[in-house]
Design a protein that fits this description.
With about 350 residues, the chain is mainly alpha-helical. It folds into two domains: about 190 residues, no CATH class; about 130 residues, no CATH class. The chain has a two-stranded antiparallel ribbon. Helix 1 runs antiparallel to helix 4, helix 3 runs antiparallel to helix 6 and helix 11 packs antiparallel against helix 12. The longest helix has 25 residues.
Length: about 350
């Protein structure tokens, strides 16, 4: 992804933490043959913000699902109950899982009778995060901090203001496989609709299709990734709408890591940039450069060096705009054109001159 989210946006993770504590209490009571506290006494209210405490007590749907979990888990062996708690712990070590410093089993590795109670419980908890307003707060906290109001997984889809219907939240670790993390804010990531519904879907971010582990970007601990098109070749691509060949795009990233490979594989980044942005927008972006050069307050370049300098100025201007309105890709295009023109590509210099002057 192009940039990360503030970790502080995950601070209000009390519902997930309460659930984990309740499950651990249920297990301790079973192992010591003590009665499980009744609802709502079982809720660790000290961990719940005061404004939510009465609401939590009324969440009988949570109580019902905890009761089902209790009835199913007490019939398992001690070893299986320990396995459940280990998976609960491991599935929520999000940062370590994404960096491949930790591994975890999936829900399907547990005894069949307990799978649905776990999934139902944590899916319900995820759903009530909306009713409680927690997800809206998380999105607002993210939106107010990020400088570019766009999906960081593609840089193309704008994020709406928090007062509008909220953007989708993706379960970065799929809730069908890693159900214990379904209500963990650390695993909930705002994502543009195309990235979420067309590309990531329910893909396993931790594993390739063959099941082997892979590293992935941590959305809440991630540096900015820059895009380079410097190795692209002008006039070597497909024929554009003007009849001239488009560049043959070569997209490189500032990090050449496994995390980048996973990002590209899951979200089809290079494919989408080439097909949906660069090929489609290239001629329009050249027309934008034409308007830039023909500004009445400026003089149209006369020499090759002046053309080279003007292209560089245009690239620098768009670099200063960051991720807004795809400026980062436009900047990369003109940075590439500048390099080729600076290296004496006369065909390209003449082509750009004609775009501006004809």
């Amino acid at each position: 992804m192009l940039f990360g989210y503030p970790l502080a946006a995950t601070a209000e993770n009390w519902l997930h933490e309460c659930l984990c504590e309740i499950l651990q209490l249920i297990h301790r009571c079973i192992e010591t043959d003590k009665p499980v506290p009744s609802w709502p006494d079982i809720i660790p209210l000290a961990n719940v913000p005061e404004s939510y405490r009465d609401t939590m007590k009324r969440r009988t749907g949570l109580m019902e699902r905890l009761n089902v979990y209790h009835q199913k888990v007490k019939n398992l062996t001690t070893a299986k109950r320990r396995q459940i708690l280990q998976i609960l712990d491991n599935q929520n070590k999000i940062a370590l899982l994404l960096s491949c410093q930790q591994d975890c089993e999936e829900i399907s590795d547990l005894p069949k009778p307990i799978r649905k109670p776990i999934t139902d419980l944590f899916t319900y908890a995820f759903d009530i995060l909306t009713d409680l307003g927690v997800r809206d707060k998380q999105y607002r906290n993210i939106y107010e901090v990020i400088s570019a109001k766009v999906c960081p997984f593609c840089g193309n889809e704008p994020f709406d203001n928090p007062d509008s219907p909220r953007e989708s939240f993706d379960h970065y670790l799929s809730k069908s496989k890693y159900s214990f993390a379904a209500a963990n804010l650390r695993n909930l990531v705002p994502m543009g609709n195309k990235c979420n519904s067309r590309y990531k879907l329910a893909q396993d971010i931790l594993r390739k299709d063959d099941g082997t582990r892979r590293k992935s970007f941590d959305p809440y601990n991630h540096e900015i990734v820059t895009i380079s098109l410097d190795n692209s070749q002008p006039f070597a691509g497909t024929i554009g709408r003007t009849g001239e060949p488009l560049p043959k795009w070569e997209i490189d990233f500032s990090f050449n890591t496994e995390e980048v490979t996973t990002w590209d594989d899951v979200f089809h980044i290079r494919e989408r940039y080439k097909r949906d942005v660069l090929d489609e927008a290239f001629n329009n972006w050249l027309n934008g450069f034409r308007s830039w050069c023909r500004d009445p307050r400026k003089s149209i370049p006369n020499s090759d060096q002046e053309w080279v300098d003007e292209i560089e100025s245009y690239a620098i201007y768009h670099e200063s705009l960051g991720f807004e309105d795809r400026a980062f890709l436009k900047a990369a295009v003109f940075r590439m054109l500048h390099i080729h023109c600076k290296n004496g590509d006369q065909r390209l210099i003449k082509f750009i001159q004609e775009v501006v002057t004809v």
